[in-house]
Records
---
Amino acid sequence: MWTGPSLRTAAWLVLVVFASLGTAPLAVAAPGPTEIKWLEWWVNEWGPDNHAKLIADFQRANPSIKVTVVDTPYPDMAGKLNAAAAGNENYDVFGVEGGWLSGLAKLGYVENLDSWLAKDKAFADTLTGTARRRLSGKTLSLCLYLIPYHFAYNVDFFNKAQLKPPASWDDFIQVERRLRDKGANRYGMSMPLSDGGFVLTRYFGYRLAQEGGQLIDDNGKVVFNSPQGVAALTWWKNFYNMGLAVPGSMGENQTQMLEYLAAGQVTTIIDGPFIWSKAKQIDPAIKLAYAPPWRAQSGGYLWSCSGVGMSAKSPNKDAAWRFLRYLYSRDVSVAMTKTISLPWATKAAMDSLKGTSDPILHNIPLFASQDARHNIVYPVLPEAGKLIDAFKIAFQDAVAGKKDPKQALDEAAAVWQTELDKAK
Amino acid sequence: MKAAVGDSRSPAAAIAPAAVPLPGSVRRRIPRYAAGYAFVAPVLLYLAVTALYPIVNVITMSVNDVTGGRWYFVGLAQYGQVLGDPVLWNALRNTAIFTVASTAVHLTLGMSFALLLHEVWFSRTLRNATRGALIMPWVFSTAAAGLMWSLLYHPFGLLNYVAVGVLHRPQPIEFLGDPRFALASVIAVNVWKSYPFYMVAILGELQAIPADLFDAAKVDGAGGPQRFWYVTLPQLRGILIAISTLDVITTFGHVDLVNILTRGGPGRATETLAFHVYRTALLDGNLPKAAAVSNVMLIVLTLFTWLYLRVLSRRGREAW
């Protein structure tokens, strides 16, 4: 027989406990820091310690803001961002490539930064001239670090083999010939031609700048099918057919290329300045350097960048903007440029490159100034995925001998022009 | 008057315990089939959330376009663009080859291994060990299998080590980089990964066939091939139809292996419909177009499966 408190008493007790649980947080709740989520792929690339310090320093200076980092492998970034945009998942600040912006802008995910920059003119003036990435008249993201593409090599291997870094395109071929060792099944370089972005920037675009050509002219006309473009593509076709790159280029991706490099299976590469920090993730002892600037018909270079954007759907835009400003602050940009060999897109960071002995960075001011008129700034493209894919197919078809370079470029240019005209 | 609990016309009456009768007014308001609906409601709700809602959503998306986050109706314009795009037809062709080849080889290999394991071996231990080894590929996740095979296919991988180092080929074979080999190489991995499913299912069914049937066939003078054709195969018909239909459906929508091994390349040599959808939606960020391709894929898959089942069941009635 039940001899304890009555059921009614027990019910009252339960009610009181629940009521107190419900009101307790209200009574003691104090406004916590504003949380902003930063989706990016840089934790390992910049080094976890550097990255953690970057965040900790910001949070120390801004105790009212908490930055939650969502680190994603680079190959998954575009998918993750597009899924977030489609599913209304918020990332206040995100790392973004130019090629991803058009899709995100269509879904209304990207904040137009023009008004923020206009309100903050002092900050806007600290950025380099090419830092704003614009599409349809709007600044959709800011370049975080600038990327010229050039020939990089494994310093220790070259020293051991008593090889000098090439000083011209002809030298480049000679070096690759010397590095090809049939007996040991060794190659000088690999070309991940399955990646449209690689094809367009590292190979075609780089050589196009050196031929004195452009991708798109000032009037928005696609001109990469010019004689300079045909010369650039023909050069790569000839190089490919020399058999000096690791076989399987058409199916090779960035990850494989990086593995070849870090494992010492290849010792040269054409890539951006981040390649050293990426390779160090696999082999911390690897030492890479850029060859001195060279020229073909011109001394131009293709410049791209990786950048950051803000979500148009962010409920914490002010906090996100503060964080974004911090990433470009003088202290951060100079320190990051020095620490991880990435040329930050600020004037202070570019100034800091003068006189540097960093084997990757010290040539970058020369890339910019050698023939500034013929530099190509990689544009933000509408329907970028489609255009890059069309270009990749054209490049592969020409290189594999399925199509004449001129015909392949004309076909790709037609696809590009249609989309550019639509976007106008 | 409607049948109620306890009513002799109700099938439940025979097994239902004696229940307290509901008041007449309540009985009139609740139709007798309401209980049935109540029981299936959770499943219907689950299907509505996990199947119906996404389908309706994708259909809605495919008849709209989006600019600056604003969606607007465009009718069938997306479908017009998609169907006029040669990339779609190339992807459809690749998908058909991938699906038919994978399913056919799965079936052949699975059946062969199942028959082999069904035989009496001189050593039961050896047979069990072989069975374990043959099932092994099924244990691998698709990601792990893809990674492993990408290393095997690698220009510096084991297969090319044999090709160059042992067989003295002048160049490594570009398994994934040559359009002539790439799709076959991906199919080979898919076959390797999934044949054990067939093998296990067929083996289970083989073991359930009564021995009397074979004995009777033997008495009638049937040889090995005849027993296989007239006894084994008809007995396996149900399971073969079921697993091959499942296989067609899953292979048709396969993305993982293509994504890990080739990302649709070289060129578009291995771009399947499912990968085309993935690329369009998640890499290019074009959701409306991807939705239209998804619906085309749904229609093609439904037609294909319907036709396949129809052919198989007709053939079964005629021949088996």
Note: Chain A touches chain B through 40 residues (CB under 8 Å).
---
Amino acid sequence: MTGSLASGVLAVVIVAAQNVAWAESDARQWLERMSMASQSLNYSGIFVYQRQGSLEAMQIVHARDESGERERLLSLTGPKREVLRDNQVVTCILGDRQAVVVNKSRPRTPFPVSFPTELMDLKRHYSFKVLDEDRVAGLTCRVVAVEPRDEYRYGRRFCVHDESHLSLRSELTAAQGGAIEQVMFTAVQFPQAIASQQLLPDMDGADFTWHREPKEQPETDDSAADSRWEVTRVPDGFMLTDHGWHQLTADDAGVEHWVYSDGLASVSVYIEKSLQDSEAYDGVSHRGALNAYGTMVGGHYVTVVGEVPRQTVELIGKSVRVK
Amino acid sequence: MSDEIREQVSALVDDELDKVERPLLLGRLQRDKGLREILGRYQLISEVMRGAGQAATLGIADRVKRALEQDAALPAADKSKTAGLSWLKPIAGLAVAASVALAAVLAVTSIREPAVETAPRVASTQNAAPATRGSEELWERIEPRIDKRMAAYLVNHNEYAASRGVQGVMPYVRIVGYENRRQ
């Protein structure tokens, strides 16, 4: 009797564990398809971006053909701003600031198919769930939730279109579950082809101040070991994924850049020599879910930026020191 | 019309315009009939120099616009033939046709960098609040002071963040997004 009860309990535990495993596997499949769809589809639409009590409307046009991805994002409310992105460059035209910022673009890697070894790590820090069906922009979508297991990262909640697998609604959520920021399509189309005109900017930026990333980058040996700096603390699960030196604008002296990722969230550490020793630079701030921490160390600006909670950028930023 | 724009048009027809500036100028050409007329005049000069004469004088400016519109109607399969070139492709044919004449007539010696930099922006912030130390709203308060650097960080970080992982929110919405509290 006792033996059969124990067997029964064991069976229930095994079935429950299998269900959890299947649910996680199912959720990751949704996320993989979603990640692929956002890069491989032609789509255009209007969406709202909500954060910190503000609501803004934007338009996106995304094209994919054999020459690669092209994307145009523009504001429909407030000052005119646009971002154009293709396989080579990202151009941000900020009408209100009369400025254009140009930077090299980087190839995008679909989640996380190419990083199978990271999946186990991801499960240590996030749980994955497929939830109910919902409806966004008139289309049926499936809610997929990624929940953090500690306070050093945010959760994500997507509503993934049944047919195209494009995310129709994306939220970044705090550990307690509340949405910090949200993007939601109000209308979206999937045309067979995107006209080139739709990818051209409204503003030409000719009279604006341009901030260009120089074509010729300083000679670098990408080894973090060669740096005179070290980042001594990062939350569990964050790994150094990139390290290098950039010259982000033509007139800057160069900035050392460290990138840490836990497989979902990325944090950048920028270290740049201060031109004014007396300049105070210390504190935290945020723009939606993007937190920043800045401090001065040894006459250098140390700036940590990431889609992670404040305590994460602060922890990392305060651990930066000269070797 | 600034000399800089004219030089950009000239560089465009010479197929020498920086690829970053190309989409911006093409966008302006779409909207600016006057600019299309300038491009048309360059084309006319080219054709006159080649002996085409009066036959080529009318309606040239709008051919640019029509060329762009025709390109817009191409299905994706046709566009794939333009692999390797991005936004400029629709106008490249016109550019090549006019380029030889323009190089001779316009005597444009170089493409100027569009208004590089920005001492005034930095200098103007010297009078900002002397200390941001400990501020909870550092970003909003110091951003004007370090505007250029932070903007470059943001764009750079977005590219790294977007190249891995799953983006909860399209990364560039935070750049396009408008800070109401600044008002």
Note: Chain B touches chain A through 87 residues (CB under 8 Å).
---
Amino acid sequence: MATDLAPPPTPRPSKAVRERYRDVVIRFSGDSGDGMQVTGTQFTNTAALAGNDLSTLPDFPAEIRAPAGTLAGVSAFQVRIADHDIHTPGDAPDVLVAMNPAALKKDLGDLKHNGALIVNTDEFSERSLKKAGYAANPLKDHSLDAYRVFEVDLTTLTRRTLEDTGLDTKARDRCKNFFALGMVYWLFSRPLDATLEWLDRKFAKRPELADANAKVLKAGHAFAETSELFQARYEVEPAKLSPGTYRNILGNSALALGLVAASRQSGLPLFLGAYPITPASGLLHELARFKRYGVTTFQAEDEIAAVCAAIGASFGGALAVTTSSGPGIALKAEAMNLAMMVELPLVVIDIQRGGPSTGLPTKTEQSDLLQVMFGRNGESPLPVLAASSPKDCFETALEACRVAVRYMVPVVLLSDGYIANGSEPWKLPDPAALPEFAVARRTDPEGFTPYLRDPATLARPWAVPGTPGLEHRIGGLEKEDVTGNVSYDPANHERMTRLRAAKVERVVAEIPDLEVEGDPDGGPLLVLGWGSTAGAITGAVNAAREEGLPVSRAHLRWLNPFPANLGDVLARFERVLVPEMNSGQLALLLRARFLKDVTSYGKVQGRPFFRSEISDRIRQMLNEVPSVH
Amino acid sequence: MPTKATPEPPPALSKKDFQTDQEVRWCPGCGDYAILSAVQQVFPELGIPKERFVIVSGIGCSSRFPYYMNTFGFHTIHGRAPAVASGLKMSRPELEVWVATGDGDALSIGGNHLIHCLRRNVGLKILMFNNRIYGLTKGQYSPTSEQGKRTASTPSGSVDYPFNPLALALGAGATFVARGVDIFLPHLKEVLHRAASHKGSAFVEIYQNCNIFNDNAFAYMTDKENRDEAIVYLEHGKPLVFGKGRDKGIRLDGTELEVIPLGGESGEDDCLVWDESTPGPVLPFLAAHLLPPQFPTPVGVLRAIERPTYEQGVAGQVRGERESKGEGSLEDLIWSGDLWRVGDDGKVARLDS
């Protein structure tokens, strides 16, 4: 299987037929050091530039480099590309690229029957097979007969391609993911230019590496073309996206942009206090690059210092944000309560991951809802909202900031590992059309007291240090109504407790009514979700309705307070299915608040719902005889 | 008197301007009263408009301090005052941010924030009231209590060795380290003035008597009859001399300090001349370890060196980025990366980024 690096002298048309697909799911899987995340991201960006709709699901281990070749070290990147509007990265891959036996072992079970399987045969040594837990070589024992297997000696071909480069074997082997990517590009008839340009940018200071990777990418492409390994090529036409300008965006990147946009729209400098934690660190990294937008980032000594510094900055008049994940939010609880008590604006972003304790740091979950609702001492309600997809993070961040400064309250924004690291095409908003929320700061000393409230929002005045005549003291001790002096008066404590709760309830004025997709007037079944389950729920409900099933859906952005019409919506449906990546936290809130016997569907596996799982549950519920109470 | 240059001289302020209408609720006889009075006397002497002062505190008796100062004030949570104050100072470098804290607040629950604040050299004035006891929780031993301390929580005596707060601050890289005593008002005011004019973190340990739970903890050095023998004043450029009739001195012998009698073979010329500005940490570290009963207790400024502050560095990076790349617009930010355009006809075209 010798390959010629130069294009063949007379390019002969490939015999492979082009088969048109409406959507294809591809998964790149390999060792942590194999560059699977980069490979998947490059394929994604190229697909985006080709106009496909897409959705991604990176899946990597918590260890940076688990022992090479082991199941624990497998890192994968799944992307679904489509010629139509899609909502999830797909349940099962059509194409699996397995760079070693461990990747094959871990991911084969997900591959569709008759799916395409590209394997790097060079890695299938006896030792590697043993490491992955294979007793016999699956390439030889017919255990892969249900799939279309393409055996390629990727490592050998890569080494040969780079023979004359002077790179050592280790450096050459690190390019092999680009050989695979080149093959896949050919398989999907995709141009190489976006990745070639990226290589030039990425390795601007090490052109020899840019050249080597480019060479390998082209060699992989040429190999796929000339080897006649593949009988068919995948064709996925551009999606009919609405006119506009697009980019592919990760959830964490969209959050960062939303925060900067909020800083601009409010006229307040952005301050981020953060401590590194998976999967929230990406936000710190993004914002640290945005200094020219007036952003200050502070990598604190711990989670507590991170939130406390943000509170200090908020006292000083900044738009203050702290970002973390579940374990960090637990550490921040006392300080969040301080911000709640002194009624300063603060945005707390929780990129949820598998818990409890250290849990599953790199896997996704929605299990912090009750923590952020109730995980503080005393009566401490806070506004809580959740982003539902990578691109939705932008608007959700803007909204969290707007509410925080308007109501002088800490707001919790929930995202999760799935949307933080997942991406989708984002139609860029017109910055001129974004909501403005100029913030009024108190400057007039006449009649000033620190806990005088705005009658509409119940917000207290933001009187920042440096303003003459407004010297005042705040703190965590209970405040006397209006004056803000320390007070131990029993009746005052109850009044202040209720005032703080009422202020959070008033946020409902900012929340649009919940919209029902399907049958707004009600029916036998509503699927109600929040956060990142939006994609799977939408996909499942849309498919069910196409089959004529009487199911509707609605999705909550605000978890506290709920939209004003939520109770009415729930009452209109005989049954309500609530899928969540936890064991029923929203369901608990709904039952407590509305006395509605919703059906909880919890999944706690560290990975998102498959569309099919929700489809099955919808069918099952519609087939059941409605229970009689 | 150190003053700050201001465009227009602010109206002269007095101690009264810094008093609040709140009833002071420390126990009668508490050393905190004296410290409050000293700070209320020093602030109007600094020539800084009142609205620029902010006092941030943690939890404990000392941390009630902001309620009694008519400035901006923030009574935060246990141990976290340096973290809150750091965020404030970073976002508003022009403010005068003072931290009031105690030995339990700063060294136990908040130890992490204290050392990181000092190593960063955030421009905060940190007044740590050291009474070597937990007062507000009714008398448990603290991280500065002497070993063997019998308290409600250590009926058999504490087993821990105490922290040396000055050595801890020096070890963390503090650029200004000093010690004052609650009842030595003129000296304490002098130390506070020095802290006020320091750029960067100023750490001031103030010995403070808790007359309820740890009365007379410092009597060995503060009682009139003990003072001369038990205290050595650190004064920049002056020899370390103490004792009734200035009859004792401190000499540097190799890498150790030793007490020598003066008047016989040795004179003041043989004593170590105090230098608070040595770039290295050795000299102040030796002074921090002058412990009773072998040595007199040092008070005054152990270290005062110049180093760029954290908030300057942070603001400098933002300014630098803006100067070299220009102030970013929201359009530029959103419209970055690989872009493509979907036309009205549905055609997809890649845009040059």
Note: Chain B touches chain A through 65 residues (CB under 8 Å).
